[in-house]
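Note to self: keep these together.
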Amino acid sequence: MPEPLNVGMVGYGFMGKAHSNAYLKVSRFFPELERRPVLKCLCGRNADKASAFARRWGYESVETDWRRLVERDDVDLIDIGTPNDSHRDIALAAAANGKWVLCEKPLAMNATEAEEMARTVEAAGVPNMVWFNYRRVPAVALARQVVDEGRIGRPFHYRAAYLQDWTIAEDVPQGGETLWRLDAAVAGSGVTGDLLAHSIDTAMWLNGPITRVSADTQTFVAERLHQETGQVQPVGIDDACMFLARFANGSMGTFESTRYARGRKNHNTFELNGADGAVHFDLEDPQYLDFFEHTSPETGRKVSEHLTGWRRIHVTGSEHPYMDKWWVPGCTIGYEHTFINALADFLAAAAEGRSPQPDFRCALQTQRVCDAVLESAESGAWVETGAQL
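Structure:
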């Protein structure tokens, strides 16, 4: 019988819902796991909202102060699904109390905080992971497999775009429970930390460390009403960001992100081009990986010219990453399943004494790139990232 793992979830917003669903489902689809998550306690500042969320999802108890939560003897794991400005304090306290720690991305407000968090969880010896869930899209995991099999060859180019349109209207306020991502004091940055952090993590997972960047950012609406103060205040986050990158392997990269791409809701794409092949992925069509094969690693020969062309792979077969846990071939899985896959990987690694990936140390490298991007946008110069993997 799997041993219970008592979960303390901090936050009842979008990510609280996604994570809670994963805890409820993971043991059903990954029955071999040695630990079975139990929804022990939900923590949120608003008692009424926290209680309603707890009832809906089946949490056994409610706290309104995360400090009490991390000290509870009946909680084994703390999951941080709060705004970015509280990640550090909760993680440090959780580790000090011997709790396993899961944290939403970005890991911290900046690399200085992230470094402290990584050191602390490592010193405490507690399993830790950051929810970069797009690694667990089967098609993205297949892209990593393609790279590991040598089917890309020498990499030349990596290009990524993450586009949304939900903040275009000038009357959208900033701050508060719903729009804290537009408040620099709470979020730390705009699309750089919120969207490009995903793109950067995926890029370095597939193509290795980003060593230096040259960036530019733009804030299109300079002032917005703040929901908590009732005052019109300056907007400190970046609405859009674009940057050039150089990777440690010598390849070049371009990254773009905005919340002002009219018609784009969650358009997250990447393409990696190499000497022997290429891969392309679009999150809005997530069951497919596009693959171009120029040279076969099995034969070392160029693919016959009359068969050369982009190949669309429907990533739903049991031979594909994660899909042996889900449905029959041809039946797709969705956004929520990426969190279940991520949690399964976390629990399996922890049981085997391995460091679940991406752990805090890995997420620190993404934070360093984000910091370098913002520094470059401010200075107008190329900036070294210091990222290592």
